[in-house]
Amino acid sequence: MSSQRGNTTRQRPQKYKNTTAFKNDMHDKSNKTKMINNLQVNHVCNRCKEVIEWKIKYKKYKPLTQPKTCVLCNQKTVKRAYHVMCTDCGKKTGKCTKCCKSEEVVEVADEQKPFRIDREMKFIIKKLPERRRRTFNRYMDKKIDEKMNNEELREDLLKKLEELKVDDKDDDFELSGDEEGSSESEFSDKEDK
What we know:
42% helix, mainly alpha, 2% strand
């Protein structure tokens, strides 16, 4: 902007523009940074949620090392940084736990835990030959993408594993006496030439 009196609007766009977006974990892959990036911001109003998310996004969020004192119950129960009220008091009063205003509070629904393979399934999968193991992994990835209930998914995967289990009768590839002799004679003829 110029120092000309009354000229408050700039006529040109900004001179230096960022070519790439800021990444808060580009040079820092520590567990602390991962934990901060995975935080769920809830029990606060929309404005406070945006403020905290901005702090997380631009690496300005500093987590608490020790619990803070709640302004309502005077107990050391505040576990989140930038909050002044514990979640219990916030739920009781219906106020934002950061600014203590009676605005609409944002609640994040708990997501369903991702499906994990238990010991029994790991043991069965380990016994499968490579080709069937890959078939099962493709099938499992497809089913996980369908957003099934964990119990239904487990039952479905166990059925598929039972289908893929190795039968000793299926994998016996014994050659008969005629085939063995003919193959040996072919090799001996090639060696003689």
